[in-house]
User: Fold this.
Amino acid sequence: MTVKQLESKSVVLLHHHLKALRLPTIGAECEKVARRAASDGSDHLTYLLQICELELLERERKAAERRLKDARLPSIKSLESFDFTARPSVNKVLISELARCEFIDRRENVLLVGNPGTGKTHLTIALSAAACARGYRVRFFRVTELLTSLIEARDERTLLGLRARLAKLDLLVLDELGYVPASKVGAELLFDVISTAYERTSLMVTTNLPFESWTEVLGSERLTGATLDRLTHRCQIIETRGESYRLKDAKARIRKPKASGDKAQSAEAGAAPVDPVEGGEVTR
Ligand code: ADP
Ligand code: MG
Assistant:
């Protein structure tokens, strides 16, 4: 056998071993990095370090991608695209702190309360994505979707499995609590999820309802009291006060063709006492 043949035989064998060891990135990159190491005059350990780093980086990238997919976020939103000046009731410093996810380590909850269109879901998605990027297991549910899953699982006798999957999460997101009243069974199942999560899994809940109205959604006062008690114990409450961003956005778009530059901005700031759009042309 010539040297060349020997080399190619050991490369084939190497790829075989790397496959068995599940090191695909090293398999894909080892020859290229070896050629570079030879021309740079790097020693064996440096070469080994380089290919191990590549494998690790690729694994981390894939794991982050998987976590983001598993979180089932309904869309992509970022904190960078959130206009904090348009929502002064939201404390930017607090949101940046939440994006560092220490609240998840402390098993604390976050509750976002405010009218429709005020950015609750936007902030929730952005914070969820930040948590995925930091290695936390997140799952985003609209409350109605979770209730359907819970009721189906109960009927199919797979509730234990669903509860076990929820228990593995670091952050469970419940979006839109209160848009639809829960049935008695639904309210009890939801309470079960919330009380199981208590001090074990962080919850992030968005709602358009002030606390006084939660009874309308959960039915009984006893259940509402117990739910709120668990949810709000060790909890950051963020209020998104003010006008709907969608409405504001739509109004700005309607005004823009008429007004130019500065004029449009002063209208934006709410200077115009009479607003032709106010009163319902733009509906949700
Ligand atoms: P909510 O969940 O409170 O009903 P959303 O988060 O769904 O409201 O916001 C409605 C739309 O307006 C979304 O497209 C969102 O990205 C956008 N939006 C809301 N608030 C802001 C903001 N302060 N800056 C940028 N976009 C915003
Ligand atoms: Mg929403």
Notes: The CA atoms of residues 29 and 51 lie 7 Å apart. Residues 259-284 have pLDDT under 50 and may be disordered.
